[in-house]
Amino acid sequence: MHRITKLLTKGPVSEILPHIVRTTRGYASSVKDGSGRGPLRAFATQAAAEPFLSGSSSTYVEEMYLAWQRDPNSVHKSWDAFFRQTAKGAPPGQAYTRPPTLAASSGVPMPLPLHAVTQGAPVDEKIIEDHLSVQSIIRSYQTRGHNISSLDPLGILSADLDSTTPPELVIDNYGLGDADMERVFRLPATTYIGGNEPALPLKEIIRRMEETYCRHIGVEFMFINNLDQTDWIRRKFETPGIMKLNTEDKRLILARLIRSTRFEEFLARKWSSEKRFGLEGCEVLIPCMKTIIDSSSAIGVDSFIIGMPHRGRLNVLANVCRKPLEKIICQFDSKLEAADEGSGDVKYHLGMSHERLNRVTNKNIRLAVVANPSHLEAVDPVAQGKTKAEQFYRGDNDGKKAMSILLHGDAAFSGQGIVYETMHLSDLPAFTTHGTIHVVVNNQIGFTTDPRMSRSSPYCTDVARVVNAPIFHVNADDPEAVTYVSRVAAEWRSTFGKDVIIDLVSYRRMGHNEMDEPMFTQPLMYKKIAKEPSVLTKYAESLINTNTVTQQEFEEEISKYDKICEESYMLAKKETAVSNAEWLDSPWTDFFSSRGDQMKIPSTSVNEDVLLAIGDKVSTVPENFQVHGGLKRVLRSRADMVKNRMADWALGECFAFGSLLKEGIHVRLSGQDVERGTFSHRHHVLHHQEIDKKTYVPLNHLFQDQAHYTVCNSSLSEYGVLGFELGYSMTNPNALVIWEAQFGDFSNTAQCIIDQFISSGQAKWVRQSGIVLLLPHGYEGMGPEHSSCRIERFLQMSNDDPEYFPVEGPNFEIQQLHEINWFVCNFTTPANFFHAMRRQISLPFRKPLIVATPKSLLRLPEARSGFDDMIEGSHFMRVLPETGEASENANTVKKLLFCSGKVYYELCKEREKKDMVSDIAIARIEQLSPFPFDLVKAEMQKYPNARVTWVQEEHKNMGPYLYVEPRIRTILKKIEDDREMEYAGRFPSAASATGNKQMHLMELAGFMEAAFSC
């Protein structure tokens, strides 16, 4: 303690307090029970000291007191004076005397520990121990009360999978008994249960704490390491009477429950054999969501982006978003064909966008439900990306106008890794949406799996603890409790801009779907469910019994909504077709009609002055900005290329992005280490070498009135980040949104987003997106993990027919682009990359672009483009034909090699080495999908005597070969040519590449020999 005494004489309390904390941590751990310290004393003192300290460090107050008991001279005189005054019975606030040395240096009095309430009574250690124990009890309820809350509507399960009572909540463990229940204890500043009362009997303290934390709401928040936030939550739940609702609130809840319940019953009557993944058992979700929207709308939010799984989706569309019921009902008629494009999707996967008046706030709001597949949580990052994009375009820097609401199932929330990936984007500067409200429809079952077998954590929501999101567990059969926590959740998000969780502990009345039999696997649960009245029945009965509504009013409200459903059913019968476009979650108003001729490809070239201006800016360091010496050489090299009217890959990329920014097109590039570039080639963010966090982004300083360029390193996530960028791209068609994988094969872990959203989104949901995927690809002898982006997978998912040669004519290229689901390219020149990026924006529609980007070509001198290939008169080249000696003597060419990507330069090198420049023609297919039938045909006709060979560096069962081969056969058949297509490449393999450098070179030499054998 002499160390503490020494510290106390050194300066202001506010300055020395951290040192005291560090000093007392070691001391506190050494104190034994035999010294007079009770077994729960440390925990109790922590509660007492919490107003000015957090965590276990607060035990220093108790240690100070114990030291003073042993030797008053061992503590500073200010503490000695305080403890002496307390022992004499000084009332609260009068025991502390500030010594002159402290007063002179600090205007803030030292906060006081709790002490006896009864004035004039002698204070002994037992009294202090009891008061500290009461503080410990209060804190225990705040910390662990949720563990004994009555959350399960069925009364058969514990939401935390543990039916025992935590020892902290057993009063006997504190040495307090029945005789102490009437004793009055002063309340600490860490609780609000007293209202205006400074002290309460112990019995009343326990009652109020149980009412707050152990009834139908379980508040899990004490893990949050921010005192302002924990105090805010305590105030929202502990203040007496704060959770009571007025009569109008209750009547509104009842009306919403009627809509939620009767909608499901209506569908069940009309389509008893249809799957609809109804909401029965958690009908309170509708009042919950509507309350969130009402409260957020009142605060100023006017746009809500909703991501959700299939359970309850139709009910949300009908009763939250107010999609016209007849449009939903039409989806049940399988005989109605689509009046527009797309294969469509099942009704409970569809999205929508709708604008309507919020009747509670009398404000217009927009609601969008994002379309998503059965991959339950895959929509999470997509909805977040859409929200972030809307906030960006609206200048909503704090998320006060647009917000996201994500719905989850309990098993999926704890079981799907994408939930964790999405949560970890929540506070990243380039990804935050300033708080998301997560609503978990906790059916306490996953398909047929008991929660005790589907998670290792106590709650399904425990993943949210990693981002300090408060979690409100609530019994879904208590609509008023649900409504209150929904309001608090909306206020939390608005106040702190952070995520919050509402865990609706409920049940699933039917099986996984309406055709499923749950009794096979959960017989006891479903026997109980069969006897359980609906939440509507129970709530209506309680309101009728308290004269809040009459039986007649209740029945009239039901009749009113039933009539609406029946009228909509009759309207739906008159429909002759369904429109997939009506289910767009982000309709691009007037985009297509404003793009002019849909059958014309606009120019993608630019003026040379634009290239020169961009080149100058991206090769110049601003004044007084110190960059790394190695980077100076890179910038000088860029400047030299600009002088010589040349561009390597990185400079070509700058030209593409910079020219779009000049035209007002927002460009966003994200992924792992994209700011510098995985291969240290990009350097779009310059870092000052002496000043932390001082950076410079040249592309944001090109032209006046240019658009903003966002380049941001992402978290080490592919699934979540690609989903986020996809959502971002869906919001505004006039933006270039790019995700770059660190290596091409990293896209493997984002395959769900690629398969379910990107490749098939337009077919299923009429959902266009111009997102670009940059996937570094190339066999450099570096092993099987980072060689291949698995380009064969993207080509396999292309929807063009290998046996159909499209009708030739002036619109051949644009027609193909219209009909394909995406573009798959493997470029060999910076100029073609430049034009492809600009084409993404210039086209009168949007399709995803998959680019197998190079690694070694980033610095290969031969892989450069002159300005002439990017200025007026230039354009994107789907095929780069042979232009050398072989082209001049086409009839004598012995072999025509088709290839794509990096292998072209290796073929050229080998051709020079073998002195076969006039015998071998090499053509590059830059755009693999849609396949350039017309241009490949022209090349084959140009060399009528040449053997046709496809060359690739990938293995035969990988790469483009399996895609290209049948299409080249179709061309040969079209021109009635009996030549066969030969193959030169690696043999089939299970691994994408060898890990042995020597084997890599042997394979390369082998297929080169095959390519050039005539």
TrEMBL record:
Belongs to the alpha-ketoglutarate dehydrogenase family. GO terms for cellular component: mitochondrion; nucleus; oxoglutarate dehydrogenase complex. It catalyses: N(6)-[(R)-lipoyl]-L-lysyl-[protein] + 2-oxoglutarate + H(+) = N(6)-[(R)-S(8)-succinyldihydrolipoyl]-L-lysyl-[protein] + CO2. Residues 647-860 form the Transketolase-like pyrimidine-binding domain. Keywords: Calcium, Glycolysis, Isopeptide bond, Magnesium, Metal-binding, Mitochondrion, Nucleus, Oxidoreductase, Thiamine pyrophosphate, Transit peptide, Ubl conjugation. Its cofactor is thiamine diphosphate; Mg(2+). This is 2-oxoglutarate dehydrogenase complex component E1. One of its GO terms (molecular function) is thiamine pyrophosphate binding. Its EC number is 1.2.4.2. The 2-oxoglutarate dehydrogenase complex catalyzes the overall conversion of 2-oxoglutarate to succinyl-CoA and CO(2). It contains multiple copies of three enzymatic components: 2-oxoglutarate dehydrogenase (E1), dihydrolipoamide succinyltransferase (E2) and lipoamide dehydrogenase (E3). It comes from Littorina saxatilis. Its main location: mitochondrion. One of its GO terms (biological process) is tricarboxylic acid cycle. InterPro entries: 2-oxogl_dehyd_N, 2oxoglutarate_DH_E1, DH_E1, KGD_C_sf, ODO-1/KGD_C, THDP-binding, Transketolase-like_Pyr-bd.
